[in-house]
Give the backbone structure.
Amino acid sequence: MRDKLLLFICAVLLVIQSTRLSIHQYPTQAPDTPGQQTSQIWRVTDLDDLLDAIEWVESGGDANAVGDDGKAIGAYQIHKIYVRDANRILGQDKFAYADRWDKHKSREMTAIVIQHYGKGDIETMARAHKCPTARYKESTKPYWEKVKLYLR
Protein backbone atom coordinates (compact mmCIF):
# COMPACT_ATOMS: atom_id res chain seq x y z
CA MET A 1 0.00 0.00 0.00
CA ARG A 2 2.80 2.37 0.89
CA ASP A 3 4.53 1.74 -2.47
CA LYS A 4 1.31 2.50 -4.35
CA LEU A 5 0.82 5.73 -2.40
CA LEU A 6 4.40 6.79 -3.07
CA LEU A 7 4.03 5.97 -6.77
CA PHE A 8 0.78 7.98 -6.91
CA ILE A 9 2.39 11.01 -5.22
CA CYS A 10 5.34 10.88 -7.64
CA ALA A 11 2.99 10.71 -10.63
CA VAL A 12 1.01 13.71 -9.37
CA LEU A 13 4.18 15.73 -8.77
CA LEU A 14 5.46 14.84 -12.23
CA VAL A 15 2.22 16.04 -13.85
CA ILE A 16 2.28 19.28 -11.86
CA GLN A 17 5.91 19.95 -12.75
CA SER A 18 5.45 19.25 -16.46
CA THR A 19 2.35 21.49 -16.54
CA ARG A 20 4.23 24.34 -14.87
CA LEU A 21 7.09 24.02 -17.34
CA SER A 22 4.87 24.03 -20.39
CA ILE A 23 2.99 27.13 -19.26
CA HIS A 24 6.12 29.24 -18.92
CA GLN A 25 8.23 27.95 -21.79
CA TYR A 26 8.70 30.29 -24.71
CA PRO A 27 10.38 29.38 -27.96
CA THR A 28 13.88 30.58 -28.56
CA GLN A 29 13.49 31.25 -32.27
CA ALA A 30 10.45 32.29 -34.27
CA PRO A 31 9.68 30.51 -37.53
CA ASP A 32 10.40 32.47 -40.69
CA THR A 33 8.25 30.92 -43.39
CA PRO A 34 4.51 31.62 -43.60
CA GLY A 35 3.81 27.88 -43.42
CA GLN A 36 5.74 27.54 -40.18
CA GLN A 37 4.10 30.64 -38.76
CA THR A 38 0.62 29.36 -39.55
CA SER A 39 1.24 25.88 -38.23
CA GLN A 40 2.61 27.22 -34.95
CA ILE A 41 -0.04 29.95 -34.56
CA TRP A 42 2.52 32.70 -35.10
CA ARG A 43 0.24 34.92 -37.13
CA VAL A 44 -0.87 38.16 -35.59
CA THR A 45 -4.62 38.25 -35.78
CA ASP A 46 -4.98 41.87 -34.74
CA LEU A 47 -3.15 44.90 -33.42
CA ASP A 48 -3.78 43.79 -29.84
CA ASP A 49 -1.56 40.72 -30.34
CA LEU A 50 1.32 42.91 -31.45
CA LEU A 51 0.77 45.40 -28.62
CA ASP A 52 0.74 42.55 -26.09
CA ALA A 53 4.01 41.21 -27.47
CA ILE A 54 5.67 44.63 -27.40
CA GLU A 55 4.50 45.20 -23.83
CA TRP A 56 5.93 41.86 -22.75
CA VAL A 57 9.28 42.51 -24.42
CA GLU A 58 9.54 46.03 -23.00
CA SER A 59 8.50 45.48 -19.39
CA GLY A 60 6.95 42.08 -18.82
CA GLY A 61 3.68 43.98 -18.37
CA ASP A 62 4.95 46.19 -15.54
CA ALA A 63 3.33 49.65 -15.76
CA ASN A 64 5.83 50.88 -13.16
CA ALA A 65 8.91 49.84 -15.10
CA VAL A 66 11.68 52.41 -15.51
CA GLY A 67 14.54 51.90 -17.92
CA ASP A 68 17.21 53.62 -19.96
CA ASP A 69 18.53 55.55 -16.95
CA GLY A 70 15.06 56.82 -16.04
CA LYS A 71 14.15 58.02 -19.52
CA ALA A 72 11.91 55.09 -20.54
CA ILE A 73 8.74 54.81 -18.47
CA GLY A 74 5.88 52.34 -18.09
CA ALA A 75 4.72 49.10 -19.62
CA TYR A 76 5.82 50.17 -23.11
CA GLN A 77 9.01 51.94 -21.98
CA ILE A 78 8.07 55.22 -23.62
CA HIS A 79 10.44 58.18 -23.87
CA LYS A 80 9.27 61.82 -23.84
CA ILE A 81 9.99 62.19 -27.56
CA TYR A 82 7.58 59.30 -28.23
CA VAL A 83 4.81 61.19 -26.40
CA ARG A 84 5.52 64.28 -28.48
CA ASP A 85 5.48 62.16 -31.64
CA ALA A 86 2.10 60.62 -30.76
CA ASN A 87 0.68 64.11 -30.20
CA ARG A 88 2.20 65.34 -33.48
CA ILE A 89 0.64 62.43 -35.37
CA LEU A 90 -2.75 63.18 -33.81
CA GLY A 91 -2.42 66.90 -34.42
CA GLN A 92 -3.30 67.70 -30.82
CA ASP A 93 -1.79 67.52 -27.35
CA LYS A 94 -3.79 64.56 -26.13
CA PHE A 95 -1.03 62.89 -24.11
CA ALA A 96 1.15 64.21 -21.30
CA TYR A 97 4.49 62.79 -20.15
CA ALA A 98 2.78 61.44 -17.02
CA ASP A 99 0.55 59.27 -19.24
CA ARG A 100 3.50 56.95 -19.74
CA TRP A 101 2.69 55.51 -16.29
CA ASP A 102 -0.88 54.71 -17.39
CA LYS A 103 -0.97 51.30 -19.06
CA HIS A 104 -4.01 52.09 -21.21
CA LYS A 105 -2.77 55.49 -22.39
CA SER A 106 0.69 54.04 -23.09
CA ARG A 107 -0.92 51.32 -25.15
CA GLU A 108 -2.93 53.91 -27.07
CA MET A 109 0.17 56.01 -27.73
CA THR A 110 2.05 52.95 -28.91
CA ALA A 111 -0.79 51.96 -31.25
CA ILE A 112 -0.87 55.45 -32.75
CA VAL A 113 2.88 55.62 -33.35
CA ILE A 114 3.44 52.11 -34.68
CA GLN A 115 0.46 52.25 -37.04
CA HIS A 116 1.63 55.61 -38.37
CA TYR A 117 5.14 54.40 -39.12
CA GLY A 118 4.38 50.74 -39.80
CA LYS A 119 1.73 51.26 -42.45
CA GLY A 120 0.06 47.95 -41.54
CA ASP A 121 3.15 45.75 -41.75
CA ILE A 122 3.56 43.86 -38.46
CA GLU A 123 7.36 43.71 -38.55
CA THR A 124 7.71 47.39 -39.45
CA MET A 125 5.25 48.36 -36.73
CA ALA A 126 7.24 46.44 -34.10
CA ARG A 127 10.53 47.87 -35.30
CA ALA A 128 8.99 51.37 -35.32
CA HIS A 129 8.31 51.03 -31.61
CA LYS A 130 11.99 50.44 -31.00
CA CYS A 131 12.95 53.46 -33.11
CA PRO A 132 10.57 55.03 -35.64
CA THR A 133 13.36 56.58 -37.70
CA ALA A 134 15.33 53.30 -37.80
CA ARG A 135 12.42 50.95 -38.51
CA TYR A 136 14.03 49.74 -41.75
CA LYS A 137 17.58 49.61 -40.43
CA GLU A 138 19.40 46.47 -39.41
CA SER A 139 19.75 47.83 -35.85
CA THR A 140 16.05 47.19 -35.13
CA LYS A 141 16.02 43.64 -36.48
CA PRO A 142 17.02 42.01 -33.13
CA TYR A 143 14.10 43.81 -31.47
CA TRP A 144 11.71 42.32 -34.03
CA GLU A 145 13.16 38.87 -33.32
CA LYS A 146 12.32 39.32 -29.61
CA VAL A 147 8.81 40.52 -30.35
CA LYS A 148 8.17 37.59 -32.72
CA LEU A 149 8.79 35.18 -29.86
CA TYR A 150 5.78 36.51 -27.99
CA LEU A 151 3.31 36.70 -30.84
CA ARG A 152 0.51 34.21 -30.38
